[in-house]
Every structure is written in structure tokens, then in C-alpha cells.
Amino acid sequence: MPIPKATAVLATNVVVFTIRDERLVALLVRRPRKPFAGVWSLPGGLVGDDEGLEDCAVRTLRDQTGLKGLYLEQLYTFGNPDRDPRTRVVTVAHFALLPPARLNGELDDLPDQRCWAPVDALPDLAFDHDRIVAMAHQRLASKLEYSTIGFQLMGERFTLSELQQVHEIILGEPLDKRNFRKRVRSLHCIEETGDWYRAGNHRPARLYRLKQPGAVEYIK
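Predicted structure:
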């Protein structure tokens, strides 16, 4: 049976999360053209004829934001027939994680065209991008329970208090310090650096690092 002519356009969008001012934020870009010209949206673009979905997501981030080398994961396929007023566009959404330590000096060259928006206070977004951000947040929060994905938001070295704060910001609720540290240490995915973090008169805190940076482990 012959394959029918394609009636949909394939695209990808990427939700880039980081922590800023103790809030979970997502990266938005301003659309340069219709539809929704001038409206905030997620980075995204059409998938090339000879391009893989992840390759398109990586290219889109590089071209529209200059970001590269981020943890990237496929999220969900959004394909409602009326999500784009021009034609039927099916987008395979991804989410990416940017450690806050990389924020300094990045993405500051075009402040009117890019912004970091708190996920709990998003502006009006183009298409169904608010739904994409909400689902990405839900996925990220749920994966904290059964994987080490939260570590991808940490810098090269970090304290356990910093790690716990990242988890609490994503989940939107406090965690028991003793239970959190017991759970983290049981994963055997971090190691002490031998250095300490000192801030004012506070007690020094041990600095840790990932044994395998960039790897997400799943908890049985």
C-alpha cells in the first residue's frame, strides 16, 4: 500500500530549565514573525529532511540561544490539529537543563529577545507552549523521585545543601534534611572533593562532585 502524502509539518521545541533567584525558570525567545509576532515562545524550529529529532533540538538551541552541551531529553509529542493557525504542525518537545553556574555572562546580549521566566508566573506564550512548559516541569519533578536528574542542575562542585535546595525549588516543597542526605549518599554517584565551602560565620560544608558528569542514573 503506498504511503499517503504527508499532511503535517514536523518541528521541535525545547524547554530549557535553570534555577535563578531561587526559582525554577524557563528560557523564552521572542517570535520574530507571524503568527504570534513579538510574543514569547520556546526555542524551536522545523526538522530538516535529513535531520534527527535530537539533532534538530541541539541545532535549535545553538542557533537561537547559543547554548550547547546541555543535558537534553525528549519529552512528548504535541499534535493537536489546531495548535498552529498556519497548517498542521506536530512538535516533538524536549527539555534541557542548564546549571545555574553557567548563567553568568550567557544570554545577556539580547535582553529584549530572550528572557528567563519563572515557570509559576509565565507570560502569555505562543501556540501551546504554556502546556509544553507545564508538562516538562511535571516530568522533571517526577523524575527526581526515581533518578539522579536533579544533579544535572549542579555545578562542577556543590554542597548537599545546594543540592537539596534545587530539589525543593523544583518540587515546590521542603524536604527533610536527614532523609534527603541519607538517600543521596545511598546512590553512590557522588564523591567528596576534599575541599570545603565556607560562607561567613557558618559551619564549613563539604564539597562534592559527580563521579560521572552528564550521566543520569535510575534508582531501582
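Summary: The chain is about 25% helix and 30% strand.
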